[in-house]
# Entry
Amino acid sequence: MPSPLETDERKGLPAISSSTSDKIKSIETFRVPPRWLMVRVETEKGIVGWGEATLEGHAEAVEGAYEDFRERFIGWEAANIEDIYQSAYRHRFYRGGEVLMSAIAGLDIALWDIKGKTLGVPVWQLLGGKVRDRVAVYGWIGGDRPSDVLEQAKVRKQQGFTAVKMNAVESLGWLASPDDLKATVERVRDVRSVGIDVGLDFHGRVHKTMAKQLARALEPYSPLFIEEPLLPGHTDELQKLYQQTTIPIALGERLFTRQMVRPYLETGSIDIIQPDISHSGGISETHRIATMAETYDVGVAPHCPLGPVAFAASMQIAICTPNFLICEMSWKMHYNLNSEYDLFSYIKNKEAFDVNNGFVEALTLPGLGIEIDEALVRKAASELNGFSWRNPVWRGPDGGIREW
# Structure
């Protein structure tokens, strides 16, 4: 093994030695419908790991990061996950933010998959072992512009869910009429009448003036949580809102490092942290966020409106994390309905994601616990022909942009 001084430092490639010898041979990305970016990493010994680097609406930017990763990391020991993570993060993160963290996530997840397969154990066993036998999950109802929630809640209950999430509002101006909030309360009441729990995603659409009114109006109906009642960055404002409601407050899909999560834990302004494993550096950083949150008695509910690899990776975190609460599941989510592909499409062992009484059983196969249908991934990526999903742009009656 050459010393770092003997390597080509112009490419930033010096790597540490390893007790094993199975180097990264190839790194591929596949943009697949409905809106996911899959990552395939293969070692010189032929072990394949799958990751997911989905950053909704920005697939091309993440793919660009993989041009750098291929030059940087092909030839590195696949077992040195932390070394690869630190190299990608420390040298690149502050120049790329969320795009780089999503790219790191896909590579990191794939390397954990490889490590588990190499050792013949599920990833959760490598992270400290199992603390639960099954994982609580929730499904989505109502769509981007929430409607028809009562009937959809009934369907979700028949599918085996005991909890759902829906958008709280369609869109609101900075200062809206209190009458605009009445429909939200009615929808929550309807869903609760089915005998099912409901979390409300404010989605950053509600500014602080309306957020405190809406939280107060929802109090009698005991939502499971209110998610992202204010956009990240409003730490002091969120702390004040926290003091005005008894409803658990959740946040985290737009926070993708421990450093970004830290202020919310230190100010005691959230009850639930929601890292998205495809945004927050993969299994490595998400696991660290979860461990840090436990110190503050904050629960973990992974954000995961994405594909099967992200969901399986989130389950690995859930199975080994004492302060885990519940995980988002994108099966039959509104973003998937206009596509022939859904959460189960790209996996062969579809029974692995079966929902029973609100739970999915712990994954037991080596690595991530799922078998990816690689032929279908390649077929779907080729048929997509470069198309990329884009976030909607919403505007109010005055033409001004509103938060989607």
Residues 81-119 form the longest helix (39 residues).
